[in-house]
Design a protein that fits this description.
Helix content is 60%, strand content 6%. The protein is mainly alpha-helical. It has a 3-stranded antiparallel β-sheet.
């Protein structure tokens, strides 16, 4: 299929999988919207005749289940003429920062880990190195560890940041990161733990609670996602995953549980703020 003439057609969206096209094609035909599909090397692009038709399609996509976070964000990027980084700067920065720290560790820059490891509050009160309460979340112990956490960061963090904004996402990341690290230290008594999974579970807990009060499709996850992550959490708590880890490595169950709980707490607080801001002002005396 040839690419439509750009002078008379507008490219409005791009999709990675053909399975995403059926619902869109049905919508286009039902509303008699003239369109063309162009098959690229690894995707399908949708072309329309007019800006009015493009707006109708964008509204449909906004209210449709986003099968792919990337496809959804690319659609929003095209719709708003904003870059992907401007839509989710915190999520992308976390992905880059964790990857960089992991690379430095792989290159045996041990000083980086020494500078970022957790420290007890008594020590931090003397050194004033407060970043250590959070920065263990940015470090990872192996390729499976970082890939697992970064995939979930993209899948969950991007949804939250796009929907709630960068400032709110940053608050969730920092608060849940610090809380999960403190709880992990409290239950283990060791400063040797690392990984972003505490924040990942906070993302999950937040979406679980907040998604029930907000019908935005980008905030909805299939039940199987929650089932999988809860089973993974339970396997860790009961020590079954520890059998698969090398040496004396242990799963940071305190961080996982702490992240999940804090995510739910923050969701409840956010719902409360939503209700307060939606409440009509009371009449003056």
């Amino acid at each position: 299929m040839s690419t439509p003439n750009e002078d008379s057609w507008i490219q409005v969206a791009e999709f990675k999988s053909s399975s995403q096209l059926d619902d869109i094609e049905q919508f286009l035909n039902q509303h008699n919207i003239e369109h063309q599909w162009h098959k690229n090397a690894n995707s399908y692009s949708l072309w329309l005749r007019s800006e009015d038709d493009a707006r109708r399609v964008y509204e449909f996509l906004d209210n449709s289940w986003p099968l792919s976070v990337l496809a959804f964000l690319k659609t929003q990027s095209a719709k708003t003429s904003r870059s992907l980084f401007s839509l989710i700067p915190i999520t992308l920065s976390i992905l880059l920062l964790c990857s960089l720290i992991f690379l430095l560790d792989w290159l045996q820059f041990q000083a980086v880990y020494d500078y970022l490891m957790f420290a007890p509050l008594a020590d931090i009160n003397q050194t004033h190195q407060w970043w250590r309460l959070f920065t263990p979340a940015l470090m990872h112990a192996g390729i499976f560890h970082i890939v697992f956490n970064m995939l979930w960061t993209w899948e969950l963090g991007a949804r939250i940041e796009y929907s709630l904004g960068t400032r709110n996402c940053l608050l969730i990341v920092v608060i849940s990161g610090v809380f999960s690290n403190l709880l992990q230290y409290a239950v283990s008594g060791s400063v040797y733990f690392l990984g972003y999974s505490g924040v990942v579970y906070a993302y999950l807990g937040f979406l679980w609670i907040y998604g029930k009060s907000n019908n935005a499709k980008i905030l909805q996850l299939p039940d199987r996602t929650y089932y999988f992550m809860f089973i993974w959490l339970a396997l860790g708590v009961f020590g079954l995953i520890d059998w698969l880890l090398p040496g004396n490595a242990k799963v940071a169950n305190g961080a996982h549980v702490g992240g999940w709980v804090m995510g739910m707490v923050l969701a409840k607080l956010y719902i409360g703020f939503d209700k307060r801001s939606a409440r009509p002002p009371s009449a003056g005396a």
